[in-house]
Amino acid sequence: MNTASTPHHAVAIVGGGQAGLSMSACLQQAGIGHIVFEKHRAMHVWQTRRWDSFCLVTPNWQCALPGHPYDGDDPHGFMTKPEIVAWLERFRRKVNPPLREGVTVRLVKPRPQGGYLLRYEVAGEPGLQECTADQVVVASGGYHLPIVPRMAERLPASVRQLHSEQYHNAAELPPGAVLVVGSGQSGAQIAEDLHLAGRQVVLAVGDAPRCARFYRGRDVVDWLADMGYYDMPVGQHPLREGVRDNTNHYVTGRDGGRDIDLRRFALQGMQLHGALQAVEPQDDGDVLLRFKPGLAEVLDRADATYNGINASIDQYIERMGLQAPPSSRYQPVWQPGEEPLTLSLQQAGIGSVVWCIGFAPDFGWLDAPVFNGRGQPQHERGVTALPGLYFLGLPWLHTWGSGRFSGVARDAQHLAEVIAGERSTQAPATLPAAVPG
User: Fold this and answer.
1) pLDDT score recorded for residue 434
2) CA-wise closest residue to 400 among 228, 219, 165
3) Where are the domains positioned within the chain?
4) What residues are paired with 383 via a beta bridge?
5) End-to-end Cα distance, the chain
6) Nearest Cα to 199, choosing from 227, 182, 177?
7) With respect to CATH, is domain 8-144+361-425 assigned 3.30.930.10?
8) pTM score
């Protein structure tokens, strides 16, 4: 590497989503030079990985990026996809980051003499390019690779398959019933979207919990905020770091916000099954879908979480002596009968499958000893054991809001302070000063 011509940056930020741009905003405020590398376009996930009817599941007032709180006239509403994209674009213009789009970082590794080497590919340009940085912030998120199980290969070519990130609306799917696999936030909301469009939905229900949208006269999020839940650091959570593996509760902000009750959908004709276990081609050309038993128990656990959250709100209201509408407890409106554990693809008339079982992280480009045995980064509030290497924007990086619009600003400000402290102890760089992005 020719160090005389290699661009050098005080800080390199990998990822141009809300986390990367929040980091840029805080570094600018601290007067620290940096560059932001983005593989696609800034904030692209909000345009490409969200279906048409997508909206926030948390109220707008929780949206608070650095220097850019929610600026609309409906703080207790839920921004739709176009509104989110427009709000983020206003944030980008406000930050005006030193951003390079269309840059895919292929390697980040520590240098023997200190700092980091980055190799990257620029769209439309041949070969790999290099730069160095004193410090690196990994702000690319944790949802990189769409998860589609190998059993998907056993479905016939006549069945259209897509991941939740590819789903836009019911009209784009071929005729026939739709199998939705997974009932987390995306799966439950996509199943509802299809159901409201009049499509026959077969839902393979997973272990995701659920919560109420409104309870005792207020949004549940408002209650939990008053109770301090969103300020609880991961170290104080009963599950400690295990909370990072939790599936998000399903609820929706659609049409002003409401519960998602899978039992009610079942009353209206949606077919509920347990988790999909196997896809078994038959000799006659049909395909048998095999489901995990225990649907009733899965629904009961989701409802127990729902009622448990409400009970904690009841206790808070009583402890604080607050006036509120009476308490209530959810009672199931439908119970599974004899549970069918198999389903014929042909007889069910399934023409498409939407896989809603999440994403896997991909940090293969980061050559640094900061990962645990499961490939997850180890850190304390984004600070790794390797000097000058940080993570930002991961779920429960520090609090519940770390991977959301509500908490990333606080985390970015913390890292900016850590970075400034590291810079004050570093020897002067021997490479050229930072070049414009």
Assistant:
1) 32
2) 228
3) 8-144+361-425, 147-355
4) 380, 390
5) 20
6) 177
7) no
8) 0.92
